[in-house]
Amino acid sequence: MNRTSPRMSLRARLLLGAILWTFGLFTAIAIVMTFVIRNSPRAPQVFHHIFSFHLPGVLFAVVCLIGGFMLVRRGVSPIRQLRARLGDVHAGRQPRVDGAYPSEVQPLVDDLNALLEQREQMVARAQAKAGDLAHGLKTPLAVLINEAARLEAAGHADLAVTLREQVERMRRQAEYHLAQARAAAGSETLGRAPVRDTVEALARTLHRLHAGRGVTIDNRVPPDAVVRGQRPDLDEMLGNLLDNACKWASSRVIVTSAIDGGEIVITVDDDGPGLDPSKRDLVLERGGRADEASPGTGLGLAIVREIARLHGGSIALDRAPQGGLRAVLRLPQ
Predict the structure, then answer these.
(1) What are the two backbone dihedrals, phi and then psi, of residue 256, each rounded to the nearest 5 degrees?
(2) Of 21, 86, 310, 313, which sits 20 to 30 A from 48 (CA to CA)?
(3) What does the pLDDT look like over 145-174, one tens digit per residue?
(4) pLDDT at residue 196 in the model
(5) CA distances from 16 to 30, 42, 70, 283 (A)
């Protein structure tokens, strides 16, 4: 493995250069003064008269030292500013590198901003294509659903059930691949997604879907919990986790979050029957299902895992304190 040797910082280089330049200047001055003294008998008296004023000389030296230090400090300040702005872009707080920089640095900043804009446009086009594909699939699938209803009305119940199952499978497959495409595009863009707002919005929808079972979602996520990424991707991941938890919970789902280093750990607990440890890895695989008799295609948790990986995160399953299943989603803060 190739390793780059540590390089001297810009500040250290400027300081070392200033020291070397100062020593060289003093040496040159000493040579000139020696030459002048050797060739002019009155030179020592003149130099003595010039340097006999100690206080002005000391003040002048102090002013030169302070001025040189301030110039070096100001010279490296744009580099520190650029590093801070790049950190803001990387964290999703800013879409561009703002600020004015020295002529040696400004072209690099301009090229970087142009690259960010070009990538944003490419991602926007990719997302538009994914949206067009999803919209194009809706109509044929809706037609098939209507045909299933007609078959059932005509007395072909078994055929209608089979058709509905296959349509649902196609829909989930399309959602899976579209979610992957959208997440791959979204992982290249920068943004900040609030976790608590996402959980609240999903909870309102899921309460209506599971109103007949009386399942409640307890949102304990603090308001300042924010992950790096796009809001639709966070909606997709938490939507699958919460829907799965509500599907199996007896009465309650609890969502919490905590900061662990540079990651936000989002935990979704339910009080359902739980999951055998031997099947936890299986349900994270594409098409893997713990209960083959239950409805679904086994893609929900696989979607969560794929999107989390694209964003530099992970998903793991464990036993919840309430006895059900615990899903632990880790995402960059």
Answers:
(1) -130, 170
(2) 21
(3) 788 888 888 888 888 888 877 777 777 667
(4) 93
(5) 21, 37, 15, 60
CB distance 332 to 313 below 8 Å: yes
CA 255, CA 268: separation in Å to the nearest integer?
A: 5
Closest to 180 (Cα-Cα) out of 237, 141, 135: 237
- Contact between residue 300 and residue 212 where contact means Cβ atoms under 8 Å apart: no
Q: Which long-range contacts (CB under 8 A, 24 or more apart) does 126-131 make?
A: 126/181, 126/185, 127/182, 127/185, 127/186, 130/178, 130/181, 130/182, 130/185
Token pair listed for 87: 């950190």
pLDDT of residue 182: 60
pLDDT tens track for 169-187? 777 667 666 666 666 555 5
Supply 123's token pair.
């991602």
What does the alpha-carbon distance between residue 245 and residue 274 come to, in Å, rounded to a whole number? 10
- Angle among Cα 20, 24, 26 to the nearest 5 degrees reads 120
Output the CA torsion sign for 165, 238, 192, 315: negative
- What would the two tokens of residue 238 be? 């938490």
Query: In angstroms, what CA-CA distances link 40 with 45, 46, 135, 233?
Result: 10, 10, 95, 83
Which residue matches tokens 């790049």? 86
Q: What is the pLDDT, as a whole number, of residue 255?
A: 95
What is the C-alpha to C-alpha distance for residues 208 and 210, in angstroms, rounded to an integer? 6
Residues of the chain falling short of pLDDT 50: 1-5, 287-298
3-state SS, 125-147, equals HHHHHHHHHHHHHHHHHHHHHHH
